[in-house]
Amino acid sequence: MDTAPVCLDLMVGLPMAREPSSCTGTRTLAEVPSPACGRAASMTNEEAKILQAKLAQVSDENRRLTEMIAHLYGNRVARESSPSACTAASPSSNKRVRALSPPATSTAASPASSKKRGRESDSVETSNSRGEAANCDKKSGTVDAQHVDSPLRDDGTYRRIKVKRVCTRIDPSDTSLVVKDGYQWRKYGQKVTRDNPSPRAYFRCAFAPSCPIKKKVQRSAENSSVLEATYEGEHNHPQPTRAGELTSSCVTRSGSVPCSISINSSGPTITLDLTKNGGGVQVVEAGEAQQPDLKKVCREVASPEFRRELVEQMARELTSDPNFTGALAAAILQKLPEY
DNA sequence: GTTATTTGACCCCGG
DNA sequence: CCCGGGGTCAAATAA
């Protein structure tokens, strides 16, 4: 890669995708003028001030959106949480758990997390998984899931990281640490841990680069035919396919669908696959019998008129956003040679 | 040439 | 302050 790094945060309020450490999208103002991140060194003071002002504006917007998301998410979790044996916040974990995200400027469990933040997620995992492993081995079924919501305190606000453990029975001779859960995963590391001779594999969501979820897969120490998968966080996107089977034919080699939309609101799944028919929309319906209204909506959504309107609307939204145009201008400015 | 996986090195934290 | 362990990075390699 010999392209000049461009610091352009277009993901206001969203977890940032993994980027080179020298050019992380979300930054505090004080960090911005680093020469390693763009061409700030070659700019005039005036240009730098303009960019800093714009960045401050974007950062502020980012912070507000983050707070809003944290608030909404907190409300949702509070509504969904019901007392059960499998769902419990670990009180003893509170003292060890820290916020998963950098203060104020990023949402929870950013995949752009540094190693420092990685330790934080470790705290979450260890706080509730130790001592629960035995539950998996005794199961005769294939899957044993546990949900643990970890309350986190960050600048006075609570954040929750959902930690889910899934145990799957596999063939003991099967050495691949693969748990099929319908999502596409990208392996980014493997480690042999002290308390288990079998290696632990680390996965990130390959479907959406900005998806904060992480998965750890390891054979059970007591029973090698049991695969323990630990999910930290939640997907910030719908499941790409139902059980990863319906549209497997259109999954690219990289394991991701370049452009598909799934609508799944606790009902039948609708997948708009924009990769088929030369860009045309194909509606893949799955699940229960479609209601007449739903079918009508599907036809409407698949129509060229709807697509055109959708694209135009997105373009209007982007071009009317002063933050976006400002950031875009700044990025272009940085890309230009010093004329 | 592109993308995913492997794997050794590095970093950070807790004891 | 040092050491060990877990998690992540990133270059090398494979597909």
Helix-strand blueprint:
Layout: H1 45-80, H2 115-129, H3 133-137, E1 144-154, E2 157-169, E3 185-192, E4 199-205, E5 214-219, E6 226-232, E7 260-263, E8 269-273, E9 282-286, H4 292-302, H5 304-320, H6 322-335
Antiparallel strand pairs: 1-2, 2-6, 3-4, 4-5, 5-6, 7-8, 8-9
Helix pairs in contact: 1-6
This protein binds a DNA duplex (15 and 15 nucleotides) through helix 2 and strand 3.
Largest sheet: 6 strands, antiparallel
Q: What is the N-to-C order of secondary-structure elements (H for helix, E for strand)?
A: HHHEEEEEEEEEHHH
N-to-C span: 24 Å
The coarse overall form would be elongated
So what's the CATH class of the domain at 163-232? Answer: Mainly Beta
**Average of pLDDT:** 55
Query: Which percent range fits the helix content?
Result: 25-40%
Q: Write the CATH homologous superfamily of the domain at 163-232.
A: WRKY domain
Structural class: alpha+beta
Count of beta strands: 9
Strand order of the largest sheet: 1-2-6-5-4-3
Subcellular location: Nucleus
GO biological process, one term: response to salicylic acid
GO molecular function: DNA-binding transcription factor activity; sequence-specific DNA binding
Keywords: Coiled coil, DNA-binding, Nucleus, Transcription, Transcription regulation
